[in-house]
Design goal:
Elements: E1 3-6, E2 22-26, E3 40-43, E4 54-55, E5 73-76, E6 85-92, E7 96-98, E8 103-110, E9 120-125, E10 145-150, E11 162-163, E12 176-181, E13 189-202, E14 211-220, E15 230-233, E16 238-241, E17 250-253, E18 261-264, E19 270-277, E20 287-294, E21 300-303, E22 307-309, E23 314-319, E24 324-327, E25 335-338, E26 344-351, E27 357-367, E28 373-376, E29 379-380, E30 384-390, E31 394-397, E32 405-408, E33 414-423, E34 429-439, E35 445-448, E36 452-454, E37 458-464, E38 468-473, E39 482-485, E40 490-499, E41 506-516, E42 522-523, E43 530-532, E44 539-543, E45 547-552, E46 558-564, E47 567-571, E48 578-586, E49 591-599
Parallel strand pairs: 15-20, 22-27, 29-34, 36-41
Antiparallel strand pairs: 1-28, 2-14, 3-6, 4-5, 5-14, 6-13, 7-13, 8-12, 8-14, 9-10, 9-13, 11-33, 16-18, 17-19, 19-20, 21-23, 23-25, 24-26, 26-27, 28-30, 30-32, 31-33, 33-34, 35-37, 37-39, 38-40, 40-41, 42-43, 43-44, 44-47, 45-46, 45-48, 48-49
């Protein structure tokens, strides 16, 4: 019996948000060349391995946080050589101006359900172009400011079967966005940030390190806003809004406005200037916005990701001086969230006053996410069960990529779960949690109506404790009870597998029947009891007599007196040769047969 479970997509657990002026923005769009983008990579692991930071592997491991499947940067256990030691592999940003209150944001995750824990530090150097790291695994050079340490204790992520109320610790296995506010900076300095893959006892033969990814790196000015330029119709009121100012930011427009917004109605193309400030904190340079007078409204559309996997959401933003918006979805806001299942083109129309219109469209490319399902054989206590995943090209579950897998069942009954991840050929990943119940194994008992019979006699073989049965051994049958007889003497073994129709779990049992030639048989009673052989030598067998047997010698003395059950074998080796009298009694003490026996 197999049960098939369909899994739902688990989306990224965090959303990347940026509301202020972006100084640094990097999405590692493939093919990403660090040197050309002003980034640096430096592997100081000991012993050094075959890999530095590299382009992400969306199909083989996991896809990017946004963009195409490979649009992220990764680092793994190959940072270090075959001899276990320490990994210290650096990914360093370009030189940026660092302000007190600036915000660094990025997304990161590790491989799903990894049993080798990962760790990453985020560090800052205020040495500008002189930022450097001397050689050595422990060295941090001028990157002396530790901003964040993810999984510093190298906690192993939960793997394998987990109880339903269990927890998962360690490096995040779903894309997680971290936001770091810069503090302790005096004045304005230049420097660099660094992502340090930092793992003790790592590498191919070490206990730690597997695979991590970094994506969507953003560094923002603390209070420096941006202002959008527009094209609009002559004389139409347009609101210029400073985006990204901090709570303490103050504003000064060349129009005289002192709030974050200024309303203008130019008849000709005009440039407007905003000078932000926030006390002693620098907000960057003054910003300008140009209002171009034309025949219609400008309408610029942006998307948080132009290519996504199905089941994921994307944010569409209309940037325009329009007062009202109408999307093809029916939405009326300037910013909407959509979750397309196929590649879709979205359009929006805007209006600002009579006869002043604008519009645009944008296409979101959708890659099909795998639709995962899994079949399970029953998980029975004391046994094993098989898991077979389908719907993708490759799978990761129970800390392995093999499919199917046969593993030991839990040792106690109850509800359990494991996490399954499947990757399609296009790099899209679906993940889900498979819940199952460990069932007790039925206690099966096999019994025979007689354990000793003569050839050609019949015996009833029965089993209980389950719902269905399958007999094997001396005889095969799916009936219980069933009748058995044999024309040959000997020990006849029977085994049975009993299965519960509710859980699908099975138990086993066995029973033996001894078939005898019964030479010199004497019938004792009409109920089928017998005594044999006669004549006898060293033993007498009494079958199916519930009562008592007494044997007398020629002098009338009792030489044997035994209680009898189904089958009894009496040792007569000490009796002298000669004639004897046997008296058989039933359970009520009534004499049922007197026989003359002869010992050879």
């Amino acid at each position: 019996m197999k049960r098939k479970i369909t899994l739902l997509l688990i989306a990224a657990c965090s959303v990347l948000t940026m509301t202020s002026q972006i100084v640094l923005q990097e999405d590692f769009t493939a093919p990403f060349t660090p040197a050309a983008a002003g980034w640096g990579v430096l592997n100081l692991s000991s012993p050094i391995g075959s890999a530095t930071w590299f382009q992400g592997n969306g199909a083989g491991t996991f896809p990017a946080f946004n963009g195409g499947p490979n649009d992220y940067y990764g680092c793994n256990f190959n940072s270090q050589g075959a001899t276990p030691g320490g990994i210290s592999n650096w990914l360093i940003t370009p030189v940026v101006t660092i302000y007190n209150g600036g915000v660094l944001q990025f997304a990161t995750k590790c491989a799903l359900s990894t049993s080798a824990p990962d760790r990453m530090q985020v560090r800052m150097s205020s040495a500008g172009t002189n930022s450097a790291i001397p050689s050595g695994t422990a060295s941090v050079g001028t990157f002396t400011t530790l901003l964040l340490d993810i999984n510093p204790n190298l906690t192993t992520n939960s793997v394998g079967l987990s109880v339903n109320n269990g927890s998962v610790n360690g490096y995040p296995t779903s894309w997680t966005v971290y936001t770091i506010a810069i503090t302790g900076v005096t004045g304005t300095v230049t420097g660099r940030f660094a992502f340090r893959y930092f793992v003790d006892d790592g590498g191919t033969n070490g206990a730690n390190s597997d695979y991590i990814g970094v994506d969507a790196v953003r560094y923002n000015l603390p209070c420096g806003p941006t202002v959008q330029s527009y094209t609009t119709c002559a004389g139409v009121s347009t609101t210029l809004t400073a985006i990204g100012g901090a709570a303490t930011t103050t504003y000064s427009w060349n129009t005289g406005a002192t709030t974050s917004s200024a309303v203008v109605s130019p008849n000709t193309t005009t440039v407007y200037t905003l000078t932000p400030s926030a006390g002693t904190v620098s907000c960057g340079n003054a910003v300008t916005a140009t209002i171009t007078v034309g025949a219609q409204l400008s309408m610029s559309l942006t998307t948080s990701s132009s290519t996504i996997c199905s089941g994921r959401s994307v944010v569409l933003t209309a940037i325009s001086p329009a007062a009202t918006y109408t999307w093809s979805t029916g939405a009326n806001n300037s910013v909407i969230t959509v979750t397309p299942n196929t590649t879709t083109t979205y359009s929006v129309a805007g209006q600002n006053g009579p006869g002043c219109f604008g519009g645009n469209s944008i296409t979101v490319n959708v890659l099909a996410s795998p639709s995962l399902s899994v079949s399970l054989t029953p998980a029975c206590i004391g046994g094993s069960f098989t898991i077979l995943a389908s719907g993708a090209n490759s799978y990761t579950y129970l800390a392995s990529t093999s499919n199917p897998q046969t593993i030991a069942s839990p040792t106690a009954a109850g509800a359990f779960f494991f996490t399954l991840s499947g990757t399609a050929a296009n790099g899209c990943v679906s993940s889900g949690v498979v819940n199952f119940t460990a069932e007790p194994t039925p206690t099966v008992v096999a019994v025979a109506s007689k354990t000793f019979i003569c050839i050609n006699q019949t015996v009833s073989i029965n089993a209980n404790g389950a719902d269905t049965y399958s007999w094997s051994g001396t005889s095969s049958s799916t009936n219980t009870p069933f009748t058995y007889s044999s024309s040959t003497a000997g020990l006849k073994p029977f085994s049975v597998v009993g299965t519960s129709t509710t859980s699908g779990c099975s138990g086993t049992a066995a029973v033996n029947v001894n078939v005898s030639l019964c030479t010199g048989i004497e019938k004792v009673n009409g109920d089928g009891s017998h005594i044999f052989p006669n004549p006898f030598t060293n033993q007498i067998t009494i079958s199916d007599l519930n009562g008592q047997v007494q044997i007398f010698n020629a002098l009338g003395q009792v030489v044997i007196d035994v209680k009898t059950g189904n089958t009894e074998t009496i040792n007569t080796s000490e009796l002298a040769k000669g004639a004897y009298i046997l008296k058989a009694y039933n359970n009520q003490g009534e004499l049922v047969r007197t026989l003359k026996l002869l010992k050879d």
